[in-house]
Amino acid sequence: MVLLSECRSRVILLLSLSVIIGLLNGSGVEARIRRYKWEVKYEYRSPDCLKKLVITINGQTPGPTIRAQQNDTIIVELTNNLSTENVAIHWHGIRQIGTPWFDGTEGVTQCPILPGTTFKYQFVVDRPGTYLYHAHYGMQREAGLYGSIIVALPDGQSEPFTYDYDRNIILNDWYHKSTYEQAAGLSAIPFQWVGEPQSLLIHGRGRFNCSSLTIPTSDTGVCNTTNPDCAPFRLIVVPGKTYRLRISSLTALSALSFQIEGHNMTVVEADGHYVEPFVVQNLFIYSGETYSVLVKADQDPTRNYWITSNIVSRPANTTPGLAIFNYYPNHPRRSPPTSPPAAPVWNNSRPRIAQSQAIKARPGYIHPPPLLSDRVIVFLNTQNRINGNVRWSVNNVSFTLPHTPYLIALKENLTHAFDQNPPPDGYDFVNYDIFKEQENKNATLGNGIYRLNFNSTVDIILQNANTMTKNNSETHPWHLHGHDFWVLGYGEGKFDMFNDPRKYNLVNPIMKNTVPVHPYGWTALRFKADNPGAWAFHCHIESHFYMGMGVVFAEGIEKVGNLPSSIMGCGETQGLYRP
Q1: Is 59 exposed, middle or buried (0-12, 13-18, 19+ CB in 10 A)?
Q2: Which of 10, 244, 424, 527 has the most CB atoms at less than 10 Å from its CB?
Q3: By the 8 A CB rule, do 76 and 70 touch?
Q4: Per-residue pLDDT reduced to its tens digit, 328-360
């Protein structure tokens, strides 16, 4: 009865919160409860024509799209039928105000969901926009466990642009090795890199060249280009109509360019915030980012056109992703009469930086940042060798998750559950040469966290550098849980603590939750530490986070409500789990 009463109290609290948020936002519209029941399990699928085990939700990959309106409450009852694997789902871009325990980050905000059990996520979607959900346990995301969250404005409210139809497309890269094989190689001595993906998927569909299999097989079912699973994704459009395309990336490794042959795209939204519109032919997009673009079907309607995705910022050894921009009433299987458009030069970072700098807040929807910050933390992104293993590090500390999730350890004052010493706020700015291959002999493993004063303003400088390979620096998309941040600026070379802040955009910076740091460059962010909880901030490349490229922020822990027992059951909370 106590547990039942506790559940009822939580439902009332969440509903009250959603109503309050609605009133604060001026909507005055009663929020709805949207319920979903999901079964997560392994099934054989052939998304790029090669059959392999993938993780599905109710038999789907990508999973079902969550559609809601601002201030609605989402309830997802997730049953883990993976049999031998834990799971956790992160609601990417949803700030979890008042519900930090449902952020879905295993090791940070919850214990994993055990096989055969059901876990209930319950949270409010407090802002309209385009968001994502995906696995946040090990490297499961790249096994197919992901989907979209689309949050509309309340009834009676309108957006600052018009369109006729709304569609969403998730971009991904695809590996034939299982996540376990990849993880074993990343942890091995000698190191075994995951390599480049075998295919690029456009909304769950791609095309692998079956004749290129390194181990030929007589079983035609293993790789079959006639399998309907890998038939190209087709976006059917009506001539003369304008389409809002919500483009998202959940790649495991790759930065991408996205284009529609012969059509311009007007960027109007990024990570749930309205953008001062600008036109592109190539949309550069990094793992964890979401954009809305407006496309008008204004070309020759007697033919179809290519939709393509291509890898940038890494050598382009993977076949482009292909889909069809299908003008009605042309037959969906009718291929375009032209070759797919040429890909951008993979190692030319200038147009990518230019796009990053072009993304500004739309007039009338600008949230001005605080003019000054209370704390500046510089994160040097480096590759290191620790105890014989290749790792990624931040300020020479390679992140490892503790056995007891941070949120529980902090709230219950389990001080021995993780290292209480804070990681460094910077690096040797004067002597470290970001353009030189470094030995980084003093790198260590660590699980300490950054404790932020509640309501303080924090600046983060992401500083890129050379890897352990000569003349090599990689693109890293960084994602912050629980917050949006202002993107104050990008630069090339080493960040100058005295001069570069004078160049910050404090007038109309865009707010985002995911942002790239470009090769040999820096990115400056500012955010308010105003959401009580423990929040991950990490590179959104699966293998990089697995190899230690991340940190955790803690803020306002004393303001966090009573933790639900459903998030417990691991580490020092064994025996406390209650479904």
Answers
A1: exposed
A2: 527
A3: no
A4: 999 998 999 999 999 999 999 999 999 999 999
Separation CA 158–CA 2 (nearest Å): 44
Alpha-carbon distance of 77 to 375, in angstroms, equals: 39
- CATH superfamily for 375-574 is Cupredoxins -  blue copper proteins (2.60.40.420)
350 CB-near residues (< 8 Å, 6+ apart): none
CA 72, CA 87: separation in Å to the nearest integer? 25
- Do 443 and 398 meet the contact criterion of CB atoms below 8 Å apart? yes
* Amino acid type, 517: V
Structural domain spans, the chain = 31-155, 159-365, 375-574
Q: How far, in Å, CA of 312 to CA of 47, rounded?
A: 22
Nearest CA to 456 among 481, 483, 480?
Answer: 483
Identity at 192, one-letter amino acid code: Q
Omega before 329 within 30 of 0, i.e. cis: yes
* DSSP strands (E only) in 97-211: 118-125, 129-135, 146-152, 165-174, 199-202
Residue 21 has pLDDT above 50, yes or no: no
- DSSP for residue 509: B
Q: What is the mean pLDDT of residues 549-577?
A: 92
Do 246 and 129 contact (CB within 8 A), yes or no? no
CATH of span 159-365: 2.60.40.420
What pLDDT, on a 0 to 100 scale, did the predictor assign at position 442? 84
Q: What is the pLDDT of residues 108-117, one digit of tens each?
A: 999 999 999 9
Distance of CA 456 to the CA centre of its chain: 25
What distances in angstroms separate CA 192 from CA 139, 173, 187, 189, 549, one per listed residue?
16, 19, 8, 8, 18
**Contact indicator for 38, 64 with CB cutoff of 8 Å:** yes
* 159-365 and 375-574 share one fold: yes
β pairing state of 234-237 and 265-270: unpaired
Architecture of domain 31-155: Sandwich (2.60)
Which pLDDT tens digit goes with each residue over 34-66?
A: 999 999 999 999 999 999 999 999 999 999 999
Q: Residues with Cβ < 8 Å from 26, sequence gap 6 or more?
A: none
d(CA 426, CA 522): 14
Rounded to whole angstroms, the maximal C-alpha distance in the chain is: 68
The whole-number pLDDT of residue 316 equals 78
Average pLDDT over residues 361-382: 97
* CA–CA separation, 522 and 493 (whole Å): 7
- The helix/strand/coil state of 12 is helix
Q: Each residue of 302-318: pLDDT tens digit? A: 999 999 999 999 997 89
**Residue of 239, 246, 238, 176 whose CA lies nearest to 212:** 176
